[in-house]
Amino acid sequence: QVQLVESGGGLVQAGGSLRLSCAASGRSFSTYNRAWYRQAPGKEREFVAAIVWNSGSTSYADSVKGRFTISRNNAENTVYLQMNYRNPEATALYYCTAFRGGADYWGPGTQVTVSS
């Protein structure tokens, strides 16, 4: 069974840091692009960051540039999101995804709550 499972969420103070992990199982995702999305209460799911499977190139939403860093460990089938928070508006459910061509897989999400 193919699964993506996020971990590392929790409560963090504005100005603090948190590192999310997304572990994959059931198959190798080394040739899949990986990304993080988030959904804040009452809002649509939005893109946060992505990393290309072969070049390692990264891209970020403007709102997190310079504060969030996406990375991956193909040997461990895992992708990470290092986050340095600035304000409580970053409170959201964070999802990881693996995608290639028309196929995509999603994890159930991990909650991050940023307190002021």
What's the number of extended β-strand segments?
11
| N- to C-terminal distance | 40 Å
Instruction: Indicate the overall shape.
Output: globular
Class computed from helices, strands and strand pairing: mainly beta
Q: Mind explaining what this structure looks like?
A:
It is a single chain. With 116 residues, the protein is mostly beta strands. The protein has no helices and eleven strands. Strands 2, 4, 5, 6, 9, 10 and 11 form a seven-stranded mixed β-sheet that branches. A four-stranded antiparallel β-sheet has the order 1-3-8-7, with no helix packed on it. Strand 5 and strand 6 (58-60) form a beta hairpin. The radius of gyration is 13 Å and the shape is globular. The model has no long low-confidence stretch (mean pLDDT 92).
What's the arrangement of secondary structure elements?
Elements: E1 3-7, E2 10-13, E3 17-25, E4 33-39, E5 46-51, E6 58-60, E7 68-73, E8 78-84, E9 92-100, E10 103-106, E11 110-115
Key phrases:
116 residues, single chain, 11 strands, 4-stranded antiparallel beta sheet, mainly beta
Brief account:
The protein has 116 residues and is mainly beta. It has no helices and eleven strands.
